[in-house]
Amino acid sequence: DSRRLQIDQVGIKDIRHPVRVKDKSQGEQHTIATFNMYVELPHNFKGTHMSRFVEILNNHDLEISVESFKEMLHEMSERLNARAGRIEMSFPYFINKAAPVTGVKSLMDYQVTFIGEIRDGKVTMTVKIVVPVTSLCPCSKEISDRGAHNQRSHVTVTVQTNGFVWIEELIELVEKQASCELYGLLKRPDEKYVTERAYDNPKFVEDMVRDVASLLNRDDRIVA
């Protein structure tokens, strides 16, 4: 190309594809993921081969893990002759949670994203999880004669790991730092529990973020 301009990212996005991901309690879980796949385009390349992104995805449509993600990144880099590339896979992840008192079970869904990047053959893996929780305001509790203000909060955790970490482990770590975790289904005894649990455990969102970060920083499997 006569303009001799490199393009940082070129590729496809929002491609939906069925996948299987590792599940701590069931072994694996079937879900639908949305993929974004990009490569760096050198200045001396006119364009890239868009169809090859889909071919690579179809070749890895079984169990998706950190290892298979690395394989996809290497294959993408080699087949498209790219020095650098990136794959993002976002999907809903379901956990069958038992209510705190009655034990009635219901599904809770969490948004999870795997992000893999390759540059000069070196792969970096990142996991991003959005965890909904309840936070109850300590200030509201302090100034009120009855009750306290509470809200739904979404805690987003993005980590790089140097070892295997279950999705459930990261979710549980976040939920334990909230005023109270959320459940898909509650009976009246459960409603009483979560109401009082949040009231007895007020926490500013800033403190919740710092508590989560402190625990992650002490985990040897978490790089960043």
Describe the structure.
There is one protein chain. By secondary structure, the chain is an alpha+beta fold. Helix content is 29%, strand content 41%. The chain is built from six helices and eight strands, in the order E-E-H-E-H-E-E-E-H-E-H-E-H-H. It has helices spanning 50-59, 66-79, 138-143, 167-175, 188-200, 205-217, and strands at residues 7-23, 27-41, 63-64, 84-98, 105-119, 122-136, 150-160, 180-181. Strands 1, 2, 3, 4, 5, 6, 7 and 8 form an eight-stranded mixed sheet that branches. Helix 1 runs antiparallel to helix 2 (66-79). 20% of the residues are buried.
User: How far apart, in Å, are the first and last alpha carbons?
Assistant: 39 Å
Number of strands: 8
Total helices: the number is 6
What is the mean predicted local confidence, pLDDT? 89
Percent of residues in β-strands: 35-45%
Question: What is the helix/strand order?
Answer: EEHEHEEEHEHEHH
* Rg (CA only): 21 Å
Shape: elongated
Portion of residues within helices: 25-40%
Spans of 5+ residues with little confidence (pLDDT < 50)? none
Sheet/helix structural class: alpha+beta
Main β-sheet: number of strands, strand sense, barrel status? 8 strands, mixed
Question: What would the keywords be for this entry?
Answer:
elongated; 224 residues; single chain; eight-stranded mixed beta sheet; 29% helix; alpha+beta
